[in-house]
Write a structure and sequence with these properties.
Layout: H1 2-5, H2 18-45, H3 47-50, H4 59-72, E1 78-81, H5 88-97, E2 106-109, H6 116-124, H7 141-144, E3 149-152, H8 160-172, E4 174-175, E5 184-185, E6 189-194, H9 198-204, H10 209-215, E7 218-221, H11 232-247, E8 253-254, H12 256-264, H13 270-284, E9 289-290, H14 313-331, H15 336-343, H16 347-356, H17 362-370
């Protein structure tokens, strides 16, 4: 229609359906909010353009961007601190790509859950016969990254003997393979990361203070996602577009209710958890936009559906009641007494409603939620 082509979001015919009107207004408001946030990020913050791989324009992230840009041009050792899932490796890769070593290798390694012998072999390599069963010499990560960057994740998990060898590399710029006493030059930049309190580990004697001083010359602290909620719509849209392309899904965006649900969640798993939730929800999405019902159950507790069915007033009210009761039953794992308390009604009245609305069992409530 001509009016839509000129910029109108939608048109309505008489008689006006107030439920459909609210639904469209909410969706339009959500899209406008996202568009404004994206415009501000791309125009003012330039988070997308200047820091490779990072998305966000909140004040905590702007401080982190400033530190990343300042340290990228030098070879100083960097310690990245932050909770699991905040994107420490992404930051390390960004520092490498912005550095003078960008054309050289980037080697990432995490010692978590690996035995000490394997950690040393992975980092320092070995000579023939240097370890059991070794018939040939092998270069470790530090040698493989000559001229480039080594990213050592979870450095707090290193044993004290490995910490001694790492300290020698930083002080003397050489290493020794297992089974050898000949030093090998180590021209690398080291970037470390941890989600542990290394100061406390130093006091407890489980982390060498001299190594701590060496690796903490320059610190970059990454905020958890719950402290940068303004970035959640940007990140969600970024992941939505990314996975829509990978999954070949024609999804144009997210409903306002979904964006609100994401922004209200505390994200204990941080950006990694958000990425996984968007990918999983996008797989379940059937229409042109992601909605609250596509999210995992923990995001739907207390949510009142904004998508009300079309039709006469009584039918709309019936649908609203049914969805409200189903949501309460899901929240309370099918317990009718707890669901009645959550809805502030008596158990006997809930039973009458279950009969009137043809909700026969808790199992049906779960089945209703699973339906597309």
């Amino acid at each position: 229609m001509q009016i839509v082509a000129q910029g109108a979001y939608d048109v309505f015919t008489q008689p006006l359906n107030v439920f459909e009107l609210k639904k469209v207004i909410d969706r339009a408001f959500g899209l406008v909010t996202l568009a404004r946030a994206l415009a501000e990020a791309r125009g003012a913050g330039a988070a997308f353009r200047h820091i490779p791989g990072l998305v966000g324009n909140s004040k905590p992230m702007q401080r982190a961007y400033d530190l990343i840009q300042k340290v990228a041009g030098v070879s100083t050792t960097v310690l990245i601190r932050g909770e699991s899932g905040t994107g420490k490796e992404v930051v390390a890769r960004a520092i490498h790509r912005l550095s003078l070593r960008a054309e050289k290798p980037f080697m990432a390694f995490s010692p978590s859950a690996l035995p000490e012998s394997l950690i040393q072999d992975e980092l320092f390599g070995h000579e023939a016969g240097g370890i059991t069963g070794a018939t040939h010499a092998r270069r470790g990560r530090f040698e493989e990254a000559q001229g480039g960057t080594v990213f050592l994740d979870e450095i707090g998990d290193l044993s004290l003997p490995v910490q001694v060898k790492l300290l020698r590399i930083l002080e003397e710029r050489c290493l020794e393979r297992l089974g050898s006493s000949v030093g090998v030059p180590a021209d690398i930049r080291l970037i470390c990361a941890t989600d542990k309190n290394l100061d406390q580990m130093v006091e407890q004697g489980s982390f060498r203070p001299d190594l701590y001083f060496r690796i903490s010359v320059f610190k970059v602290d990454l905020p958890p996602l719950r402290q940068r909620r303004d970035d959640i719509p940007l990140l969600a849209e970024f992941f939505c577009r990314h996975f829509a392309r990978l999954l070949n899904k024609e999804v144009r965006g997210m409903s306002p209710a979904l964006v609100n649900a994401l922004a209200s969640y505390d994200w204990p798993g941080n950006v990694r958890e958000l990425q996984n939730v968007i990918e999983r929800s996008l797989i379940l999405t059937d229409g042109p936009e992601m909605r609250v019902r596509d999210l995992p159950h923990e995001f739907q507790r207390g949510e009142v559906p904004t998508e009300i069915a079309h039709g006469p007033f009584r039918e709309a009210v019936r649908t609203f009641k049914r969805e409200l009761i189903l949501a309460a039953l899901r929240t309370q794992s099918g317990n009718r007494l707890k669901a009645a308390k959550e809805l502030s009604i008596s158990r006997s009245y809930l039973h009458r409603l279950l009969n009137q609305l043809q909700i026969r069992s808790e199992e049906e409530a779960a089945a209703e939620h699973a339906r597309p």
